[in-house]
Amino acid sequence: MGHWTSRAIDAVADWQAEWGRYNQHPSLDVDLDVLGDRLAELTDRLTGNYPFFHPRYAGQMLKPPHPVAVVGYLAAMLINPNNHALDGGPPTAEMEREAVAELAGMFGFDTHLGHLTSGGTIANLEALFVAREIHPGKAVAFSAESHYTHARMCHLLGVATRSVATDRFGRMDPAALNAALATGEIGTVVVTAGTTGLGAIDPVDEAVATAREHGVRVHVDAAYGGFYTLLAGAGAEGLAPEPWHAIAECDSVVVDPHKHGLQPYGCGAVLFRDPSVGRFYRHDSPYTYFTSDELHLGEISLECSRAGAAAAALWLTQQLFPLTPQGLGAVLSANLRAARGWAERVSAAPELTLYQRPQLDIVTYFPTVEHPTMAGIDAASAAVLKAGMAEEDPVFLSTLTAGRSDMLERHPGVGADADSARVLRSVLMKPESEHHLDWLQDRVRTLARAATGS
User: Fold this and answer.
1) 331-368 pLDDT tens trace
2) What pLDDT, on a 0 to 100 scale, did the predictor assign at position 291?
3) Dist. CA 440–CA 352, nearest whole Å
4) Sign of the C-alpha dihedral, residues 328, 333, 334, 335?
5) Which residues contact 164 (CB under 8 A, 6 or more apart)?
6) How far is 381 from 363, CA to CA, in rounded Å?
7) Residue 428 near residue 369, CB atoms below 8 Å
8) Around Cβ 34, how many Cβ atoms within 10 Å?
9) pLDDT per position as a tens digit, 19-29
10) What's the distance, Cα to Cα, between the start and end of the chain in Å?
C-alpha cells in the first residue's frame, strides 16, 4: 500500500504546486522532535487494539478498510473537501453522486434521491424524519430484533413506535405485522435486511405486500446486510432472492459501506425511491449555496459538513470492486462460505451447540453444558469469551444476550432458571476467515471443554 499512498501524496502535492508558492504561517510550525516522540506514543497506544484485521478476531463487526479505500480517502483528505455545498468540493460531490447512484442501482431503484452519511444511525434518522413528515402523527413499527437506533431516533423525533414479534429465526413475523398494521396507527414499517445480532433477514417481500394493503410506507434498514443483495439468487452459494428483490419496491433504504463495502468509518448512505421527498429538507443558507444552480448535497441532508474524502474512497473502491456478484460479491461469497462452514463444524462438535443457523455471516453458538440451563450457558459462554482473549494464542469472540423465550424456542430442553443467557457470537465479515476455520474451531472447542469441565 505504501507505493500507492506515496503516489496519492505526490499527486496532491503536484496539484498544490500549480497554485504558486507560499510560506506556511509560523504559528503552525511544530517541534519535530516532540512530534517524533508523541507519534511513537500514539502508535504504541494503538497496539492496545484487538487485531481487527486478523482472522483470529471473530468478534464484533470490525475490520480495517481495504487499502484501495485508504488511498482514495488519503488523497482527498489532503485537500479536505466538504461535500455539504458544491463550492466545498465539486469533484468529490460528483463522485458522491456517482457512487450513490451505483448503490441505488444495486437495490433496483429506477429513480432515487440519496447521499452519504456518517453512518447508519444518521441515515436511519433521515429516513425516519421523512417518514414522520409524510405520515405525521402515525407510529413507526419495527421488529423486536431490529437495531436499537430506531427506537432512539423515533424518541428524538417524537414519533410513537410499535414493536413487532419475530419468528424462531429472528425474522419479523408477517402475521404479527399484519395485526399491528390493522390498527391503523402505523405510517411506516421498518424491515431489516440483516439484523446486527443474528444476521436475520426479514421477509421484505411479504412486508411490502402487507404494508401496501394498509397504505403504509416501507423503510429497509440494510445498514449491515445491504450489500448481500448482490448474491440474491446467485446459485447454490447465494441467497433466496425474494426479500432482496423486494427492496426495489420499498420507499427508502439505508446501507453502510463502512461495513461490507470495504470503507473506513464513517460512511453510511440513505436512499429514497421518490426524489420528491427532497422537499422536506428545504432550508435557507444565504452564505452557502452560491456557486451553482445545481442541487447541493447539503440541500438533501440533515447533516451539514461531511467529508468529501468518504465519497472519494467509496468511488475509488467501487471502480475496483464493482457492485456485481463477481466484483464485491466475491468477497461476500467468501464470508457466507465461512459462516456456513463454521456452523457445520459447530454442529458436529460435541463441545459446542449451534444457537441457530446463520442467515448471513454471523454465527451464534454456545458451549455444550450437561443438563443445560440458562445460567449454566451464560456462565460457560462468558468463560470462553474471557479465556479466549487471555490465551497466549488468543481468539477474540463476542456475545449475544438471548432472552428466555428466544432460547427456549430454539432449544426447548434448556432449563429456564434465568431471564436471559449470553451465547457466543462471531461475525465473519473478513473473507480470510474462510481459510482459518479449522484453527478457529479448534481454539473454541478447547476453550469450551475448559469452561464446562468436559
Assistant:
1) 999 999 999 999 999 999 999 999 999 999 999 999 99
2) 60
3) 13
4) positive
5) 141, 142, 143, 144, 172, 173, 176, 177, 180, 189
6) 14
7) no
8) 9
9) 999 999 999 99
10) 46
CA distance to 109, 250, 278, 394, 446, per residue, from 105 (Å): 6, 14, 19, 42, 46
- The secondary element (H helix, E strand) that includes residue 382 is helix 374-390
Strands of 139-143's sheet in order across: 113-117, 268-272, 252-255, 217-222, 186-192, 139-143, 161-164
pLDDT in tens, 174-207: 999 999 999 999 999 999 999 999 999 999 999 9
231, 204 Cβ separation under 8 angstroms:
no
Q: Are 256 and 224 in contact (CB under 8 A)?
A: yes
Give bridge partners of residue 190 from the DSSP assignment: 142, 219
> How many other C-beta atoms are found inside a 10 Å radius of the C-beta of residue 386?
12
Average pLDDT for 398-423: 97
Asked if 317 contacts 261 with a C-beta cutoff of 8 angstroms, the reply is: yes
Query: Can you spell out the DSSP letters for 182-208?
Result: TTS-EEEEEEEBS-TTT--B--HHHHH
Q: How many C-beta neighbours within 10 Å does residue 379 have?
A: 17
To which residue does cell 411490502 refer?
A: 208
Do residues 190 and 161 make contact, with C-beta atoms less than 8 angstroms apart? no
Count Cβ atoms below 10 Å from residue 24 Cβ, excluding itself. Answer: 7
Length of the chain: 454
Cα(359)–Cα(340) distance, integer angstroms: 9
pTM for the model: 0.95
Would you state the cell numbers that stand for residue 417, as one nine-digit string? 432458571
- Give the three-class secondary structure for 315: helix
Grid look-up 413487532 returns 164
Q: How far apart are CA 292 and CA 280, in angstroms?
A: 21
Q: How far apart are CA 219 and CA 129, in angstroms?
A: 11
Q: How many Cβ atoms are within 10 Å of 398's Cβ, its own excluded?
A: 18
- Cβ burial of 95 (10 Å; 0-12, 13-18, 19+) is buried
The number of angstroms, rounded, from the C-alpha of 133 to the middle of its chain's C-alpha atoms is 26
Asked if residues 356 and 445 have their Cβ atoms less than 8 Å apart, the reply is no
Pairing of strands 139-143, 161-164: parallel
CA distance 264 to 281: 27
How far is 123 from 136, CA to CA, in rounded Å? 19
3-class secondary structure, 357 = coil
DSSP H helical ranges for 47-144: 67-77, 90-106, 120-134
Q: Which band of pLDDT confidence, cut at 50, 70 and 90, is reported for residue 286?
A: low
